[in-house]
Amino acid sequence: MTKISFRIILILLGMSIISSPKICMGEIDISGNLKLDKRFLVADSVRIADYPYHELNLKLQSSPSKNLFLYAGMKFRLWDQNLASSSADLAEISFNNPYELSLWEAYADLYGFIVDELDLRIGKQRIAWGTADKLNPTDNLNPDDFSDPLNFGEKIPTEAVNAIYNLSDEYNLSAIWLPSLKPILLPRGEFPLLGSTDALPLPTGTNLAESVEHLTFPDRKPENSMYATKLSGKIEEYDFSLSYFWGYDDVPIANKLAVTPVDTLGNVKLDTYLGFPKFRAIGFDCAGELCSIGLWGEVAMFLPEEVKMEIKMPNPADPLNPIIQDTTILSDEPYMKFTLGGDYTLKTGVYINAQWMHGFFAERGKDNLEDYVMAGIEQKFKNDEIKIAVSGGLEIKDIEDIEKNYGTVIIPELSYVPTDNVKLLVGAFLLDGKLGTLFGEWKEQDQLYFKTEVNF
């Protein structure tokens, strides 16, 4: 069976079961959801955003025996983009509607492996660490899914072996092996995220004619595997965990720049070499309730390895011996990220959530961490069929000069549940900020969105 035929059968299977709440085929349970997402950029003129996608998720699970559980999750994404550049491209539907089918998760759970207290999960899996609401500095095992940058905190499942030893009813110890590094997933459309090296000062009298990136991964050898361990427990009414991670950052960093003349007219080529730095992280998190207020805290101490950048520039005085400089772009000085937050539901039914995050996902280095205060409020009406919510955030790059170093995001949203398992949403992302801030870089991404979610 060809890949295309398999995809078509899978899509038809998914669409045929949308109207059913859940289907059991023998000993296999099938469920999932359909998410439709349409967005319009409104910063200058109204136009359709090209990086969001529609998504169909299929989930299959089975328990052949009391000691075995099997799970597979398939994700089908469809982008509303037109990539055709010639009339010949119009013969391929993938140019008009780029799509992607992936085996998102696939693992087996073995309960009581060798001894009754040991459970084992093997396969492609999401290993979620931390107690904060999506803003988790200890959650470093799976790479970031920034395919939709405005959906903070999403991760990509990766291949791993996760062993959990149950020390008692309230304590367990887990040990995890991740065979290889998986990188961050970036958006398909144009969206400012990781910055660029275009600001490199070129030699006087030269012009940039070509820019090329070279991405280097660690060798796929056992010694470059990643490891983690965590002790989880409960004291009184508070859940907590202590964790340790050794591995690689999933966001690449430039470690070499080379400027090479391409002709005698002053045109040069810029080669940028990127790699993935190593780091260790020691984490602690806890969550509980005090006076009906939900509270959580999470902190991670990062111990990075130093990264130096080699800069190679032409030498006008001696063309055969270029100028080579080394500069430290990531110090090995430890730095700390944390999130503190809480939530509360008033007697009137109004729900309030607030968090303070020090150090965003892609930020690293002691002097490069910013503060983010995120908060939201929501109220449901008409037996929870209608919900009005407003959330937002304040980014603080430099508290001592905040007037020139802040960014903001405001997200109003209205949702309606016309029938069971169906939700309709309309909302907006309104971004602003000063130059050099994250939200400031995104301020041209102001947008309205319309979403439909169907669970089956």
Write the layout of secondary structure elements.
Blueprint: H1 3-16, E1 23-25, E2 28-41, E3 47-48, E4 53-65, E5 68-79, H2 93-96, E6 99-110, E7 118-125, E8 158-166, E9 172-178, E10 207-215, E11 226-235, E12 238-248, E13 253-261, E14 267-275, E15 278-290, E16 293-304, E17 307-313, E18 323-330, E19 335-345, E20 351-358, E21 371-381, E22 386-396, E23 406-419, E24 422-433, H3 438-441, E25 447-455
Parallel strand pairs: 10-14, 13-17
Antiparallel strand pairs: 1-2, 2-3, 2-4, 2-25, 4-5, 5-6, 6-7, 7-8, 8-9, 9-11, 11-12, 12-15, 13-14, 15-16, 16-19, 17-18, 19-20, 20-21, 21-22, 22-23, 23-24, 24-25
What does this structure look like?
There is one protein chain. The longest helix has 14 residues, at 3-16. This protein starts with a helix and ends with a strand. It is mostly beta strands and 456 residues long. The strands form two sheets. It has an 18-stranded antiparallel barrel. It has a five-stranded mixed β-sheet with strand order 10-14-13-17-18, with no helix packed on it. A hairpin with a 2-residue loop joins strand 1 (23-25) and strand 2 (28-41). The chain contains three helices and 25 strands. Mean pLDDT is 90; it is low at 15-26. 5% of the residues lie in helices and 54% in strands. The protein is globular, with a radius of gyration of 25 Å.
The termini sit apart by 28 Å
Order of helices and strands: HEEEEEHEEEEEEEEEEEEEEEEEEEHE
Mean pLDDT: 90
Name the shape in a single word.
Answer: globular
Work out the strand percent.
Answer: over 45%
**Percent range of helical residues:** under 10%
Determine the structural class based on helices, strands and strand pairing. mainly beta
Give the helix tally: 3
Number-wise, the strands total 25
The radius of gyration over CA amounts to 25 Å
